[in-house]
Each structure stands twice: as structure tokens, then as C-alpha cells.
Amino acid sequence: MLPEKIIDMHTHPGYPVGELGKILDYMDERGIEKIVSLGASKGPEYNDRILKLREMAPERIIGGPCVDPRDPGALDELKRCHDKGCRILKLFPNFGFYPDEAQFVPFFEEVARMGFGILSHCGWLGAKRLSSVKYARPMRFEELFRRFPDTLFIMAHMGGISGFIEGIMYTTRTPNVYLDTTPGHSHWVFKHAGEMVRGMPVERLLLGTDGISPPSKDWDASKQYELIASEIDDLGWGEHLEDIYYNNAARVIEKYKLLP
Ligand SMILES: [Zn+2]
Fold first, then answer.
1. What is the Å distance from ligand 1's center to 104 Cα?
2. Does pTM surpass 0.90?
3. Domains of the chain and CATH, by start
């Protein structure tokens, strides 16, 4: 049985602007109270979808635009989204930047000043563009975790298969770091490293699914709610399902003011 209320901290607006209502239908059908809707490395059109979706239901949609810190217009784009109430920055370091490089400190200072939390893709990324896991691991964020202790950091996909131990470690050392359950790395981690996962504080684990796009023949993210719940049960955390699916996220949203 799934919890009555769900907050999904990792989704993408996989419908064009004219069809965004389908995302709200999806939420209603599944008892999803709120979502974080995240940008992708697809340019500002994708961020526009998030802004539009927020306009449709500002109390339910946490906006998470994506920018590349190497892009000279990145901060302007973030300011534009901040003005529309977005408070999560989505990053894809896989495309070739180490987040902890000194050249990005001024960028992250501004991100923190604006009150954005940071959610980064971690681990393998099956993109057509040249991409590498080496950039996208929790360890490359450590200096940022520590430099910006009041900023929320979510290491997506459990930190990635190659990075989950790092992710788990930071949840036990730095108070502002969380992991999300987003597939597919999370399935591997839950299956092969369940005992290690229980080494992290359960309040640092947030539900994420990579919904909501039109279901395709080999991927229907709406099935993830049941699947992840059964994996959490298998690793012995069944009693914490409501925390992982709702309470932890509700606390994070309030603490980091993600819904202005
Ligand atoms: Zn994602």
C-alpha cells in the first residue's frame, strides 16, 4: 500500500506547454500533492514549461530550472526563473564541468544568495552528447556542501551507482545533503547495497521517480511508486515509507522555503 499523500522530488515536464495539464491530472490520479519539476539540458524552452506549470498550480509545483554554470547567460536565466518562484537549480555536471572548481565559486555564491537549493544528476547519464560520470559524483560537491551550509543539496539517483557510498557518507556528515530514490541507479543500489543504505539517516532520503513523461513501451515512470516502495520494504525500511514518500520532503520544502 502506498502512502495516502506523496511528494515526488524529482520529475521532468515531459509534455509541451499546451499539454501541461496532463501533469496535474497525473498527480491527482496518484495522490501526488506536490512535485519538483526539473529542467533538462535542453535549453530555456524546457525551463519555460516549468514556469508555465507553476503558474497553473503554484502551491503544488516546485520549480527546478536547469542551467549550465559555464553558460554566460546562466545567472540571468536563473534570475528569470527565481522571479517566477523557482527555488531549485538542476545541474548536469556529466557534460563536462567539475562543480567544485574555483571558477564556479562566484556562480554558486549567487545561487545560494538567491535561495536556490541544488539538485544534481549523479552517476551514469545515457545522453547522446559526450558525457561522463567522473564529473557527477557527490565528492565533487563536498566543498560546496561545506562552503554553503544553509543551501540544500540533493544528490539524485542515490548519488549514482559509482557514487552512492560518497552520498551516504555526506548524509551522515553534512546536515544539508539529501539523496533521492530516482531510478535507474537507485534500483541497483537498493538491490545490491541495501545494508549500506540503512547506514544513512532515513530522514535524508527523498522520493524521486523521473516522471512525468508520456509512457513509452519500455518506460512508464508511474510504475515506479510501487516498485520503489517494495524495494524500500525489502531493505527493511517499510515502516519509514511515509517519511520517504512525504514527510521528509514536506520538511525540506518548509525548511529551505522551496515554495515561496
Ligand atoms: Zn531526472
1. 23
2. yes
3. 6-255 (3.20.20.140)
Pairwise CA distance, residues 75 & 68, whole Å: 9
Going by the DSSP 8-state scheme, the letter that residue 66 receives in this structure is: B
Residue 76 vs residues 35, 107, 113, 219: alpha-carbon distances, Å: 24, 11, 14, 35
The rounded distance, in Å, linking the Cα atoms of 56 and 144 is 33
Separation of alpha carbons 140 and 232, rounded Å: 27
Q: Residue 172 Cα, ligand 1 centroid: separation in angstroms?
A: 24
The predicted-structure confidence for 6-35, as pLDDT tens digits, reads as follows 999 999 999 989 999 999 999 999 999 999
- Extended strands (E) in 22-140: 32-38, 61-64, 88-91, 117-120
pLDDT in tens, 59-84: 999 999 999 999 999 999 999 999 99
CA of 180 to the centre of ligand 1 (A): 10
* Euclidean distance between CA atoms 31 and 79, whole angstroms: 32
